[in-house]
Amino acid sequence: MSQPPYRRRRPSRPRRVALALLPVIATGTLTGCGGSAEASPQGDPVQVALGAADGARTVQAGDRLQVTAEGGVLTEVSVTEPSGRQLPGGLGHGGASWTSRAKTAPGTKYSVVARTRNAQGGVGAVKESLTTATAARHNTLMLDPRSPDAAAGAVRPLTVLFNFPVADRSAVERRLSVTADGRMTGSWEWGQDRDGGDRVDWRPARPWKRGTEVTLRAALDGVDSGGGRYFVRDYDLKFTIGRSCTDSDLEPVCGKVHRSGPIEATAPSVRGEDNRAIGIGDWNDG
């Protein structure tokens, strides 16, 4: 009895499971190269997903970002903002997840790199990006002195005035800074302005020296001010300390205006009532 001719079968290729990245829709979208993964020397790649820490697949501004792994564990996760600042976080549940300790900012693209290890000991890496939506409600502020290259008085505080209440004052204060030549020190003090709005003053530990160049910076882009409002830009102001006005029994005194060097104009100032119509000039400290 004749036998059918033997057909040689090709060896089957090992099955590979494609990397699964849960889509983040609406207010957070995943973009990039589709979750590229480095080849594992053995076993199947670890499936990695991005989402919000509360379990939602959408990542909105103010959420805490969570990276999860299936079929293995996460060994390292880094999430970076365009500025290069890292979103702090940590691994949990034996490496099954990574959760940010800080909240995500609005309108911000986060670059995510997740390194993994599967059950067979194979290692891999996933590179992705996630962009949050822009904030629907904003908070804004005004710096005082109000103009670049202004001449401020020797003991006048530097002031940040907010248009809406600030709930997390410590988060905002961490983003405020004052730098000056001469190593000036001082402290922030919170209060309310005449209209009841929030304000914070920086008072120098000792009087300013005339001619000191000062930079007031509010690096608040993306910071949550509370009540669903966010700051959506940074604020910077550079100015120079001028001489203080003196008590002259309500008679006009000093008020020189400086713009990058030479004096261009003068403005009257009387005790207890400063002339700020033009926004810059020496102030009456009486």
Q: Would you state the CATH class of the largest domain?
A: Mainly Beta
Mean pLDDT: 74
**Spatial shape:** elongated
* Biggest sheet, spatial arrangement of strands: 1-8-7-4
Instruction: Write the element-wise H/E pattern from the N-terminal end onward.
Output: EEEEEEEEEEEHEEEEEEEEE
CATH topology annotation of the largest domain: Immunoglobulin-like
Radius of gyration: 29 Å
By DSSP (H or I, 4+ residues per run), the number of helices equals 1
Uncertain spans, ≥5 residues at pLDDT below 50?
Answer: 6-40, 244-286
Helix-strand makeup class? mainly beta
How would you describe this protein?
The protein has 286 residues and is mostly beta strands. The chain has two domains: 28-132, Immunoglobulin-like (Sandwich), CATH 2.60.40; 141-266, Sandwich (Immunoglobulin-like), CATH 2.60.40.3710. It has one helix and 20 strands. The chain has one helix at 169-173; strands at 28-37, 47-52, 65-70, 72-80, 89-92, 97-100, 109-118, 123-132, 141-144, 151-152, 158-162, 176-180, 186-192, 198-204, 213-218, 224-226, 229-230, 235-241, 256-258, 263-266. The strands form six sheets. Strands 1-8-7-4 form a four-stranded antiparallel beta sheet, with no helix packed on it. The chain has a four-stranded antiparallel beta sheet with strand order 2-3-6-5, with no helix packed on it. Strands 9-11-14-13 form a four-stranded antiparallel beta sheet, with no helix packed on it. It is elongated and about 70 Å long. 30% of the residues are buried.
